[in-house]
Design brief:
- The structure is a homohexamer.
- The first copy, chain A, is α+β, with helices and mostly antiparallel strands.
- Chain A has one domain: 2-Layer Sandwich (Macrophage Migration Inhibitory Factor), CATH 3.30.429.
- Chain A is 40% helix and 28% strand.
- In chain A, the strands form two sheets. In chain A, strands 1-2 form a two-stranded parallel sheet.
- In chain A, strand 3 and strand 4 form a beta hairpin.
- Chain A starts with a strand and ends with a helix.
- Chains in contact: A-B, A-C, A-D, A-E, B-C, B-D, B-F, C-E, C-F, D-E, D-F, E-F.
- At the A-E interface, strand 1 and helix 1 of A face strand 1 and helix 1 of E.
Chain lengths: 67, 67, 67, 67, 67, 67
Amino acid sequence: MPYVNIKITKDGVTTQQKAELIKGVTTLLQKVLNKNPATTFVIIDEVDIDNWGIAGEQVSVHRNKSK
Amino acid sequence: MPYVNIKITKDGVTTQQKAELIKGVTTLLQKVLNKNPATTFVIIDEVDIDNWGIAGEQVSVHRNKSK
Amino acid sequence: MPYVNIKITKDGVTTQQKAELIKGVTTLLQKVLNKNPATTFVIIDEVDIDNWGIAGEQVSVHRNKSK
Amino acid sequence: MPYVNIKITKDGVTTQQKAELIKGVTTLLQKVLNKNPATTFVIIDEVDIDNWGIAGEQVSVHRNKSK
Amino acid sequence: MPYVNIKITKDGVTTQQKAELIKGVTTLLQKVLNKNPATTFVIIDEVDIDNWGIAGEQVSVHRNKSK
Amino acid sequence: MPYVNIKITKDGVTTQQKAELIKGVTTLLQKVLNKNPATTFVIIDEVDIDNWGIAGEQVSVHRNKSK
């Protein structure tokens, strides 16, 4: 009965990639802890890069500096 | 001073239904634990059905299979 | 398939009270949005009053001032 | 390696204000707990005022009553 | 720079199993989305079975009924 | 009416340090967004270092390697 929340930056993640994350996490919980996939929830939050901070600045700014 | 987060799939939930959820949860916490409604927060997150997984697949896929 | 997280202060909430919260929230979601109880999750977090802040101070301090 | 999640109502918060929140929280964690900014995450969620409840009603309703 | 939160019931999960979950999720995010493991956070919450509800009742009660 | 959740590793954070975090975040939200401290919640979660992963391994392991 696990609940998993994945937060990633909003960067054009495709439906196919989301499906792979959901499948992968669910399988992992089944393999490691024998959890039932039927009651395993996975929620993906895509966060705007203006709303995610790392190293004290927005990802939108941080990435430009790294270029 | 409770904080409640309700995550549901984004399925055209109306403003009226959201109001009922907020009212209902706040009243419940007052009744069961004598919590003060004035400092009871309820946050509703509506999650895209491509971003919610159950049984190892996206709700968008899972529902189609159930039809 | 809703997911609900209730955060309250750790104040000797009884097992019976937790059961009432879980039952109440699940019934509310069924009534308002026709959600299936079988896949409704409710998680209660009890938070130490040193770790919960309101009005810029810990609940442990805030309560003493209110006495 | 802290993770901070700030939830606020969606009220036209500017990019500059978000940057100040991220900078401020990261600096605070460095000052108080000596946490490394390079691995400090801050995620800001802007919540629709129909989806945030206080005092048993939506913020959208609550504010109108206060006028 | 993903953040992943895994909530599971507190059932004697071992340190080794936690390590496998952390490794597995981090590898999955690297494989599917090319995310950098160095800034991938995984937080595991173990929830008391009195505090987790499913089907309108506590897991502690729900499991006994299933026996 | 902001809600802030701070997750840090469980490393003997003192009550005084928690008070400083709560005070600091609340003041920041008042300064940047004019938020009312009376309805600003701050919740601090202290996470066991076996339950926090970075770079694909537990913090408990990661720190030993860094020594």
